[in-house]
Structure formats: structure tokens, C-alpha cells
Amino acid sequence: MKRVILYIFLPLCSFISAVSATADVFDHPLCTETQSVFVAANSAMSAHPIQNGMFTQTKHIAKLNRNLVSSGSYFISKDSGIVWQTKKPFPSTLVVSADKVTQIAASGKKSVLQAGSNATFESFAKVIRSVFQGGDDLSENNFDVFFEGDASAWTMGLVPKEKAVRAVAERFVLQGGAALDSVTMHEKSGDFVRYEFANVAFPATLTDDEKAFFAE
Amino acid sequence: MWAFFHGALIAAFLVSLFAHGAVHFNTSLFDILPPSHSLKNAAQADAHLSARTSRAVTILSYSDDFSSAKRAAEQLYSLYRGGGTFAPDDSAQIPAASRQAFFEDLTLFVDAAATQELTDFIVDHRFMLLDEETMSLLENDGAAAVSQDALGRIFGSFSLTDFSALERDPFDLAGSIVLRFVDAAGTDGTMGIKDDVLTAEKDGLWYVLLRGTVSPAAVSLVGKNSAVKDIYGQCEKISAQSLSQPDGHEVRFAFSGVPFHSYESSRSAQRQVSVISTIGMILVILLFLYVFRSVVPALVSAGVVAVSCGMALLSVLLAFHEIHILTFVFGTTLIGTCVDYSIHFFVHWKNDASVSDGRAIRKKILRGIGISFVSTEICFAALFLAPFPFLRQVSVFLFTGLLSAFLGVVCLYPYLSLPRNRHLSCPRSKSLSQTAAAGSSRKAFRFGFPIASGRVRNAVRFIPPVLFAASLILIATNRHSLKIDNNLRDMYTMSRHLLESEKITAQVLNYGSSGWYFLVEGASAEEVLQTEEAFSARLEQAKSDGTLGRYLATSSFIPSQKTQARSHRAAAALLPLAGDQFAALGFAQTATEKSAFAAQYATEFNSAQNHYLTPETALPTILASVTKNLWLGEIGGRWYSCILPLHAQDEAFFRSLSASFPAVHFVNKTADIGSELNALTATMLKLMAGAFVLVIVLLFFFYPPKTVLRIAAIPLLVALATVAVLAAAHISLGFFSVTGLVLTFGLGLDYVIYAIEGEKSDSFLNTLAILISFATTALSFGALAFIDFAPVHTIGLTVAVGLTTACLSAMSVSGKKHNAPHF
Predict the structure, then answer these.
(1) Alpha carbon distances (Å) from B398 to B272, B331, B631, B783, B810
(2) Do residues B183 and B540 touch, judged by C-beta distance below 8 A?
């Protein structure tokens, strides 16, 4: 039965991706020359406890050779979790907290996955938080890190060391400068999901409406 | 007669062996318990379920370092599945192939292909597996909502499911089904996948999970075939070697599962029985040597005991085709009882100057041992009337063993030549009869027995009233313990390390098993599934109320055909929307393309009609692993399944819930068997009363009414004294103590009968024989009181107290009329 849980959580990782132009970064393992830029970029990503903004998502399904494009808003709280509110072309909301994943359809129907302290989920959540928020977990302890560029425009390649996570989220490509511009997650199947961010802001606190997503 | 009986029994056993095949030595701890009364209708199904679950084991290797824990698990796995390089602890010299046969199945690694297999299965059968909410929506003009929700999920940010089958499943029906399966299978465990193994991290320790089913042959508790014994040995070696690794992290193991408990409890019982039997036998032999100053009585008696035990074993195997290992525990009592007849013979053989050969001795003792034999056999036979297979085995074992011993004494002993020097114990002394007749208590004490003076003899007469009064006082002061109560939890005490293992496993896995379950019964698989669905609806309410955490049921994954047909009918509402759905997903741009995709969708929909899934269908590995312990299938012409409530507390609520479903049986084995044992205890008391009446009636044929009343008073006093001691020891009057009482009735009556018989003949020799008999029986029966296994301990204590009372009372009976100073 735990495999079924895994089955859920592994594809769950398919919310980030990258397309071309980033393949080269995996030819550049983190080295002495790029270490300082990597540390600076990581610090910049983790500097804010809360961030929000707009996103455009491109979901590529390799088997169908099809891209599904959507857009919406998101916010990430270091303490509470991540909320993605897709608005176009079809509305839906997804809340990822420490212990569950809740999918809310346009009709209001909720699908909840209680993750509890499932180790796979924890690994996954940890990787996602690291990728979006940076910080201590975004390190060579948890990833094979590749890096190129400078402080104004950098590309980061991350290969999770955890095999269970890597089974789906084979590698991540992050691009940014002063802030994170995009995150792409490549899956083993050839699928990828790419997020491009805009209007990123770093408010000090969550609004009551935003808090409500985690309270339920 | 002796040869005929033994020859016939051996011949019958050999014929039975030829006809029925190999016999079985049962070592399962739970098999000594009576079947639950509430399961009478479904006893076979319950037995089937027990047979499956009783061989399941869970092993956790744990360490503060994940790699070390995983390596240890891999080493253990490789030993039983091959492919590893770890050198096993081969002190038992088990061939690799034999070791690999210890497990029917053993799982460590998570098979990634299994998830794809499940995905494909769900996509293929999605029209038949819709959840209740989706079906209701579709049946109530909600097809558009289903369509929109699917598009929301597909275009949503996080994908909970795989969309690679969108071209076939544009409404993402499979996604909803997967979520339902995940919910049904439960996600409250702490285990997850790390580096291809199921693992959990808790309080700084990493736990790696191995699950398996021990093969039937390897459940054996003894010898090289014991999987558990081998597992313990291998784990010990792996733990020891883990410290010698370069990283040096300590690895330990936690074990859970019935085989471990059976092994430990039975191993302990076996060890104790073997030690106690050996000591008992040695003491009895020493006693014989001391008293008779000859090896003949000891050797002959040991031979008769050995033969009687052998015959007892054959008779049980003949009657039941199996014997429980703990039946042997009770068998040790035969050492004492069988020897009694020998003692009565040899006391006369060694010392009675009035007899000139063995036949004369037989003539002299036949009436006494004959009556006692019949009365004891009546009590042993009474055990057979208990509706409890294990006790029936014990009954047959004891009955046959005693018969064999009796025949041995009566048929063979008379052919023994009398010894030249016919004086008991001390060659230099006069015969004991003469000694006792002379009133020389000092010399008598040289034999080691309290052959007392007239003063002591007079004091002995006060034993019964003193015992009676003391018993009443004990009962009065401990009356709170005086109740019929059988609590299974009191009958087995886990070893400390196994208790610790179980605690660790429970905390890490957090399955929330309550120990209860529902057994669902029906005339067909379809009926069982429909009943499950109706009952599950009530369980869903309990989930909403918070009374139930969750539950596992086959119908959560494989619905009834009725529900599958409804699902298919409901899905038809999506057909008109299929074209637009494909368009929204970008598959169809033109009206023609939309029509083509919609037609393809409709074709698949139509072809799915009437292709029903059943629990017997070949299921994907993941599903099969969930349902294998839930779906019991056809057993004896009926169909059964099991529903497991998890994280449930209120037993009474669930018991009453099942009561409203005639085909759903609530099973709480601990409580049910406790109640069953309470009922059996009452039955045993009635059997005891019946046996008592029968023996008393029998005695009326041999003794005058006044004597019979004297005899009858003794067992009543024995019962009173035993109950008093049990109450003082805070042991409730349970099934096993009452069983002990029944045995005591039979054995205790012997002493009284011998004592009464002694009034007619050489009373001293009779008294001496009673004392030696008591000593030997106390050595064997009383020794059982030192065995940890609670049921055996209780029986041992009961019988020891009962026999002591009987012996003391018998002495008072014999002392009443005799002028001869035999005490």
C-alpha cells in the first residue's frame, strides 16, 4: 500500500520543468569558481520567509507530445507551505502543507492526501522547499549541484540524491539573477514542467485568506 | 492383554499413517486456545485467515545511519532470497537453498514497475471503478462538473496523478480512482521509500522494513527447519558485524509476528518441560533407588512410563493426526501417575512377606489400583467432553498413557521374580511392617517418611477440619479474587526483548490495528462484496464521526458487479462531452477530429461493458498485496472476506454495528475466546460434578455407604482448599485451573481409595505407597507450577495444592480406624 502512496507522491513532483537551453548546465559541476555565486544565489532565494507572484506553467507530456499551458498566482511560506492557484484556462487550487496535499477543484470538490510523516513525502516536500526557497537544504548534501553564470544571470542544475525523489523528479533546472526567474523539473519519462515567475514580491506576513488555506 | 492393546494401537497408527499421510506436530501458540463461539458459522474462514496471518512476519533493521540499516536489511534479505555476498552464520549448517525456502515471500525492495502496472490497470478499468461521489454527480446531471474538475486538475499546478493516458482518459477518471485507492489503502503510516526500500525515520533512527511470510515447513519451532531460530542467529551476526564496518554504526533488529511469539513461548516451554521432566524423572529414580535399594523397580517403572508416553503419543496422532507440543507438557504428568501403580506393586514386591510371587501381589493390589484407575480414567475422559480440541488431545494422551501403564503393571509385573532381600530401604533393618508394627517411629524415619507416632497420627485426624477452616478463612479474605474469569492477556507474557520489538514495530508502522476485524460471509463473491459495500457505508459514517480512523476492505478496491455496472452506466453521461474535452486538451482542433476522438472514447466505453472485475481477477501486484489478507474467497461452499478497522477504539460500538448485519461477524479473538473460556469453565465445573457423581456411584459397588461418604468428602475438601489457594494467589477461577481441579479429582481420589483399601490389608505398606505416590506425582505435577507459561503454571499449581490436600486427607482417613502404628 505504501507503494500506492509513492505512486501518488512521485508524479506529484511534476510541477516544475525546464526546456532546452539548460541542458548544458549539467556539464558544469559546482566548482571553486562558481561556489561563491551559487552561495549568493542560494542566499538570495532564502532571504525571504514569504514570497508570492504570478506564474506561467508549461506542462509537457512526452508520451502525447503535448504542452499544457496554464497560469495563475502562487505564494510560498517557509513555515506553512506552498499554494498554487491556477486561474487559466481552468481554475483549481493546490495546497501543499507539511502533512497533506489538498487539491481543490473549481466545483469546490476537495481531494486530500494525508501524508502524515511519510518518508517519501517528506523527502519530496523537502526537495520542493529547497528548490523554491533555497537555504541550507539546497546543498551538496541533498543534491548533485551544477552551476554556471554570474550573479546577474545564473543557471543551477540540481539532481536529487534521494533515489525515491529522483525516480520522478530526475533533475531540476533553476534560472535567475537577482531573483528566481524559472524552475523546470524534468521527469524520467521525458515529461517536464516549467514555471516562469513574474511580479515576485516578498511580503512580511500572509494575509488572512492565505492563512486560511493552511488552516483547513 | 498388554501385547494385544499395544500391538493393536501400533498397528492402527501405522494403518492411519499409511491412509492419512504424515502426522503434524503443532507448535502454534494460538492453537491451544478454543475457537471463538461467535465464529461457529465462519470458523473455517477464521481458521483460513489465521493460517495466512499467523505466518506473516515483519522485521525492521534500524540504526542511526540509514546506509547501515539498509545494508543490514539487504544482507538479511540476500540470505533468504539469494544474490548477496554476506556469509551467513552457518553453525546450523543449513544449505543456502534450504534457507531460501524458509520464506514463501519476502519483500525488501520496492518495485518501481509495480506503480506503472497499477496505473495501467486503473486506466483499463476506469469505467467500472468510479467512486461514489463521481457516480452521484454523473447520475445527477453533473457531467459538466466532472469535466471541469478534470480540466482543473490537468492544468493545475501540482499533478497528483499521471496524465500520460489523457488521450484515452480525458476526464482523468483514473486520477480520481487512484486518489480513492490511496485513501482506502491508508496513508497514516510512517513508512516511505528511500533508496528503493521502505523506510522510516523516527527519533534519530532509520528503520528499514522487511516483510514476509514464513513457509509452513519453516514455522517449525525446533531444529534446523525453524526459520525464526535462523533469523535470530543471522540478525545477531549481522548486528555484530555492523560494528566492525568502517563506519561502525550499530544496527539492531525489531521483530513482529506470530511466528516469533510462538517460537519464543514454545521454546521456553520446551526448554522448561525438558528440564523439569528430566529433573522429575531423576528424582523419581533416586527415590526408587533409595526406597527399594534395587535398580529393578526404577528401571521397570521407567520402562513402563516410557512405553505409556509412547502409546499416549501414538493414540493422539491416531485420533487427531497431529499433536500440540504443549500436550507433552501435560504428558509429563504421566510420569507421576503411571508410576503410582508401579509403586503399589513394588512396595509389596520388596517388603510384603505375605506374598510369594508377583501374581499374589497383583491379586492383593488389583482392587485398589483398579478402582483408582477407573476413577482417574473417568476424570481424564471427562476432559474429552470439553469442546476444545487441545484439551481433547490431553484427554486422549492421559487416558491412553494411564491405560498402558495400568496394563503394564497388571499384565507384566506379576512375572517379575521377587528379590532375595525383601526389606524396604534399609537392608539391616527388619521389614518395615515389622518395624512399624513395633511402633518404632525413629527407625521408620530412617526411611525418610513421616511414619509417625500415635500422637502424630491423632493429630493427622485434625487435618481435614483444619484445612476446611483455613480454606474458608482464605476464601473469605480473598473473596474478590474468587470469580470465573479467563483473560487471554494473562495467559501469555512476552519476553522483554520481544515486547520491546513489538513496541518499536507498532510505533514505526503505526498501522493502528485494534486486534478486531469483521468477517463478511455470503453465498457468492458478489454477495460478499455487496454486503461489504453496505457495511462500508456505515463505516464511512463512523469515520466521519471520528469513531474510526479508517478501514481496509476488498470492495474499496474491487467493487461488487452491481456497483461496477452502476459505475459504467454513470460514466455514459460523459460521452456527449468527450469531443469538447479532447478539444479543451488540445487533441482535437476540428469538428471531425472531435468526432473521431469522441467515437474512439465511446468504443472503449462500450467494450468495457460487462467486463467485471472480481477479487479473483489477476490484480496488479500492489493491489494484490493489499487484498491478499482481506479476501478469503470460497471456503466450504461459502464466500468470505475480512474488513480491518484501523485506529478504532470503541469495541462495543463496532460489535453492535455488525450485529445489524447478519452476514457480518465481529471478531475480537481476545475477548471472544475469553468469554468462550468462561463458558467452558462453567462446562468443566459441570463435567467435574458429573465425573464426581459417576465415581461416587461406582464406589457404591465396592464400599458401604458410610465409607463412600468419607471418600466423597475428600474431593470436596480438595476443591475447597484449591480454590482457597488460588484466591490467595489472586488467580481467578479460570478454565485451566478448573482443568487442574478435574485432574486432581481423579488423582486425589486414588489416595483416598488406597487409604480405604489399606484399612483392609497391610495399612502401613499402603500408606507408604501413598506417600511415595504422592512424592512422585508432586514431583511431576507440582513441577508444572514452575513453568512460566501461565496455563501450565496454573494447572501445575492447582494440581499440586489439590494433591497435597488429598494426600493429607487420605492419611487422616487411613488413620481413623487403625490401631497399627503405621504413621
Answers:
(1) 20, 7, 41, 17, 23
(2) no
- For B517, list phi and psi in degrees, rounded to 5: -160, 170
> In chain A, what residues touch B154 (CB-CB under 8 Å)?
68, 90
**Against a cut of 0.90, is the pTM above it?**
no
Among the partner residues B153, B181, B587, nearest to A92 by beta-carbon distance:
B153
Residue B217 three-state SS: helix
| Contact (CB, 8 A) for A175 and A25 | no
- Measure the CA–CA gap between B107 and B442, rounded to whole angstroms: 74
Output the CA angle B557-B562-B566, nearest 5 degrees.
90
Query: According to the model, what pLDDT value does residue B807 have?
Result: 82
Say if the Cβ atoms of A3 and B111 lie within 8 Å.
yes
* Sequence-separated (6 or more) residues with CB below 8 Å from residue B672: B36, B37, B38, B39
B31, B57, B60, B256, B508 from B502: Cα distances, Å: 21, 11, 10, 6, 10
Cα A191 from Cα B742, distance rounded (Å) = 76
Lowest mean pLDDT of A99-108, A139-148, A168-177, A184-193, name the range.
A99-108
- Give the number of A-B residue pairs with CB atoms closer than 8 Å: 188
Label residue A13 by pLDDT band (50, 70, 90).
Answer: very low
Tell me, what's the pLDDT at B62? Answer: 93
Contact B199 A89 (CB under 8 A): no
CB spacing of B164 vs A189 below 8 angstroms? yes
**More confident position, B110 or A131:** A131
ipTM comes to 0.83
Of B149, B181, B185, the CB nearest to A109: B149
Q: What are phi and psi of A176, to 5 degrees?
A: -175, -175
Residues (pLDDT < 50) of chain B are 37, 187, 426-452, 816-823
Average of per-residue pLDDT values in chain A:
79
In the three-class reduction of DSSP (H, G, I as helix; E, B as strand; rest coil), residue B516 is classed as strand
Q: Flag if B626 and A92 touch (Cβ within 8 Å).
A: no
Cβ separation B157–A57 shorter than 8 A: yes
Q: Which residues does chain B have within 8 Å of residue A59's beta carbon, measured at their own beta carbons?
A: 155, 159, 163
Q: At what angle do helices B327-351 and B389-407 cross, to 10 degrees?
A: 20
Contacts of B86 (CB under 8 A, 6+ apart): B75, B78, B79, B238
Residue with cell 465462519: B42
Nearest CB among B159, B188, B587 relative to A116 is that of B188
Instruction: Report chain A residues whose CB lies below 8 A from the CB of B185.
Output: 1, 4-5
| Residue-wise burial string across B198-207, b where 16 or more C-beta atoms lie within 10 A, e elsewhere | bbbbeeebbb
